[in-house]
Amino acid sequence: MAATWSPGTAAPDPAIQQKYVEERNKRIRAEGSAQFVDLNKSDQKILSEDPWADHAALNAAEPVLKDGDSVKFLVLGAGYGGLLFAVRLIQEGLSASDIRIIDDGAGFGGTWYWNRYPGLMCDVESYIYMPLLEETGYVPKHKYAYGPELREHAERIAKQWDLSDKAMWRTQAHAATWNDDTKRWSVAMKEGRGPGQQSRDLHLDAQFVFCASGLLNVPHIPKLPGLENFEGKYFHTARWDYSISGGSPTDPSLELLKGKRVGIIGTGATAVQVIPQLAKWAEHLYVFQRTPSAVDVRGQQETNMDTWKTEVATGKGWQRARTDNFNSWITDMASPNDPNLVNDGWTHIKAYKAIIGGKGRLGNMIPPEKIPEHVAALHEDDFERAQSLRARVDAIVKDKETAEKLKPWYPSWCKRPTFHDDYLPAFNQPNVTLVDTDGKGCSGMTPRGIIDAHTGKEYEIDVLVFSTGYRSPGGGSGSPAWRASMTISGRGGRSMDEKFVTEGAATLHGIASNGYPNLFFPGPLQATASANFMFVIDCLAQLSTYVAAEGLRKAADPTKVALEPSKEAEEAWSMQCLMRAGFYAGISGCTPSYMTNEGDRDKVVDMQEQMKAGRAAPWSEGIASFLKLVGEWKAEGKLSGYVGF
Ligand SMILES: NC(=O)C1=CN([C@@H]2O[C@H](COP(=O)(O)OP(=O)(O)OC[C@H]3O[C@@H](n4cnc5c(N)ncnc54)[C@H](OP(=O)(O)O)[C@@H]3O)[C@@H](O)[C@H]2O)C=CC1
């Protein structure tokens, strides 16, 4: 359809709003999140072994944890989140020697450990994304860091805070049970030992448990009938198989793809980074698209040391100040005359607040009758940007039909905005074909190829890359137990999943839940949000470790603390989140994705269930407001709302 927008016009065109609805409706699938198979549950071999672990060396080494050990602070996860919990504990005056970390990988980094696909980079500015830059003195090489540098930085942090030898690798906790007599957690875990080796069961007890399992941690693929008979090779981007592609995480020469017909399913934030790399090497690349990404300018730059000293690392506290400035722009709280320090595409998405909270024209407590007006205002805020991104496709992609298919027809908050300078130009290459499935996706495999559900046509390929994302963080009970794929049984043996299903989310400030003493987690439910999720985790790690440390400082007998929010405090906070949940109403009209639990979120019609879902909302007044609120709470120094110390 012809867009009627011209620069400077803010009012959304009703025809385009209608197009948004039509494009969304095309994509709603009755099976919702059940269209996928979680790779941690399937018998697919994609995830069965860690390609990066040195199993022989690990099997020969003295284990960091033995069956029956007692630990003071147990951190589940060795990504940046787990590291931040550990570092912030140490900065609270607690000893690194009392900390143990477990992870199913074999090195620090979490998502940056597992994801090593070619073209991997972080889409948030490295100067604010990479934690602890001031403390480590590290200067990122580029404005946007590449994968290997992000993993190295995780190792750097571990080394600096004496955590390198505190992690037990290839180990996954599957159950944690609170013992009210000892005031400790009993944690059951399994240690993998590599191909052909028997795994080992371990039980230990811990006084405190910190859950840092990550948000997008279970890769999934669509259920594709016939995959088992596909004669080509395939893998998921979260476990890139360089033995199939050639190259390595530090060598982007995908030599083995020369002469090969390669297919990639998915065009999300990962695929946008991968596709330009595949396009360089494959004889032919078929990109199977269900929904196009919105792709903005990246503007990658090497770090210039003069600029670094004069404009970035300008003095003590610079990283926090730069992050606060970034957050003020993405939550639409900045004034037009404020400096925009990061000044990239993120900071110009005025309507991103629809998904992370921020300044609403009607405030943040939106009564049901005002929701249409609130959502209309969000669309108005978004319209100019959305149009300019569609115009950007026309300016770059030469074939008009392909350009039309690459245009996103949804507002900026419905899918992760992407930024890349080589993605759209890749579609001008003669060896790249966009297979637009008109919202239907791929429906199955044959021994030789893949079937486009829209046309029923088979495309013959030799290698298939699944860039199909992860289990939605909005699925299941949403509890930290569900997120970590484990059972957490609190006081009286109550399952945390059962509590969250029955009552809805229930926390104080998104970090702790009544009935689960001495156990902390970094939101995201009832906490806060930002495009820079690393900063969110860090703030919540600081808050959690403060509560733990302060509880220990205040306790008459520190071995007997059982810190948890009181039921009253938890309910009061849940109500505060619920009262502000209407602010997120714009998400309901979104084209399905992991943000809407693949459309399942919109199927909740029962009022009780809607209220439960509303309780899960992160604080909608924006991250600055959340941090002010918890900062004032902390300054009182009373641990108000907590009991058990
Ligand atoms: N910080 C960073 O730099 C980066 C962060 N990330 C994070 O990871 C998240 C996940 O990104 P990503 O890995 O791309 O996963 P996504 O869930 O965003 O994308 C999955 C893709 O697979 C498509 N798909 C799923 N099933 C089918 C099917 N049957 N047929 C055809 N296509 C299908 C989806 O289409 P549809 O949209 O229609 O569902 C979508 O394009 C991002 O949103 C971001 O938060 C990822 C990369 C970089």
From TrEMBL:
Question: Which keywords does UniProt give here?
Answer: FAD, Flavoprotein, NADP, Oxidoreductase
Molecular functions (GO terms):
flavin adenine dinucleotide binding; N,N-dimethylaniline monooxygenase activity; NADP binding
Q: Does the keyword Magnesium apply?
A: no
Cofactor(s) the protein requires to work:
FAD
Q: Name one Pfam family in it.
A: NAD_binding_8
* Annotated Gene3D superfamilies: FAD/NAD(P)-binding domain (3.50.50.60)
Q: Which domain of life is it from?
A: Eukaryota
In the record, the note on similarity to other proteins reads: Belongs to the FAD-binding monooxygenase family.
The entry's protein name is: FAD/NAD(P)-binding domain-containing protein
